[in-house]
Amino acid sequence: MLAHRPPDVPSHASFLLSRLQLYDEQLLRWTDMTAGTQLRDGVQLYAFQREAPWHHEVQKAIPPPVRPGIVMGGQTAPQAAAAAVAASAAASSAAAHAAAHAPMSTAGVTATVGHATMINPPMLPDDASHDEKTRAVFEELDVNGNKVIESEEFKRGFRALNFDLSAATVVDLFAKADANRDGVISSGEWQRYTEVYPTMLDSLYFRARDHWEDFRQKQEIKAARDELEAKKEAEKQAHAVHLEAQHATNTQEKRLAAAELALAEIVEAERDAKNRLLDGQRDTEAALRERAQRSQDLELARERERQRTLGHTETQRDTDRAEQNLAHQEAEQARSQDKEKQCAHLMLEAQRETERCRRAEQEAAADLQAARDREQHANLAFLEEKRQTELSQDRLAQAEMELQQRIARDRDLDARSREAAVTTDREKIRRDDEDRVLQIARDAEQQAHMRHLESQRAVEDQDKKVLAQEAEKQAAHQRRKQVEDQEKPLLEQEVRLREQRDSLEEKEAKLRNDATLFHGTRTISSTSPYRVMHERSPRLG
User: Fold this and answer.
1) 3-class SS at 148?
2) CA spacing 20 to 30 A to 115: which of 40, 63, 323, 489?
3) Count of Cβ atoms closer than 10 Å to residue 511 Cβ
4) Contact, 37 vs 67, CB < 8 A?
5) Helix axes 198-342, 130-141, angle to 10 degrees
6) Three-class DSSP category at 384
């Protein structure tokens, strides 16, 4: 599209866009363009210029969108208003003005966007009057819009409208229409020509209407096919999104299963830690009871040791008393021996006394031996009790050490249990997060699946629509073929009758000329039938 700078705009000023709007074929309305991904082949854009000191634009109504179509035969119209991006509503009026002078194959408004050319066909009603048909067909045949029909335009129009006439017949028809023989057909000459050939006019008009109806159907089918391809592409994209959502859901399910497994393992580890902690606590309680029992046994051993010590002391005192008694008895025996020596006469008595003392000494020695045996036994018992006390002390120390170890182990197990509880809570939170993400993924998958199904249904509906349009086009083509077959003999008859009439008129003119020459200066009377016939007959050159 060519743009011309107004005279009051400085040369350094650039054309700046404030926003773009495009026509959404699905929403069937104009929407703001926010991303490049909205652009498609054949998209219709509308541009809005920014405000500037030398430019102030008033928002007008955006013209209705034009459905995309393809030009017949690949031809283009020089007068077509090529406008895909406009800045104001004036573009629509300029395009409509250009539509009135477009050629047969490209009449209507054309606008190129991307790689597609859109055409708005002219309206040719069924109930048009003779003058409307004459004007419409003249504009259809006037390809270059110079207000006359040239020979090539005439021939191309008959070819485009599928008239089964020979080239000579078409040339002859053009010659009959060109009354002044200037090589072109003016609107007045065309008006007189259509009055002579009304069947030809109707055939031209309705074939032009059918031509544009066929073109409109082709446009609609092309648009429907493009829409079908777009919906297929959307269906593919929806299917890809659905597959991606399924993959994301499967991945999330695997992650959730892994999180569930990890949580189960951590819960099992926490349960084991709690069980070990309970076992350790029970072992600690048992160790405490054992330590208390060993402390009690140690106290009992110490008490027995004290008792043994007291008994050993008493035994030592008894031994000392026995030794003192033995020493006393020995002293008594010595005194008795002295007395025996001193008192001979008292020998018997001394011998008796000595015998008594010897028995007493033997008893004292026996008591001393018994005391010494008791002392030795007490010493052995004391040593045994002392060894038992030391053994109880060792056991108590070992129980104390085991108790401290179990207390430390219980503290470690308690710390591990708390850590396992924290890890379990963290894994539960992670599992809940994964579950929420999985639910979101499932919802997204469900939405993608629904969009995929909707896209599939849209593709099926659009495919049915395309098939129906193609069937309708085929039926219309068959009807047109039947009408053309019925028109052909009528057109041939009209041309043949007109040729016969022209031949008769030529013969009549020749006879009149001969009569004039024959009668010399005689003139035809005003009441002559030849004059009346001459005045009523139209002249076609």
Assistant:
1) coil
2) 63
3) 12
4) no
5) 70
6) helix
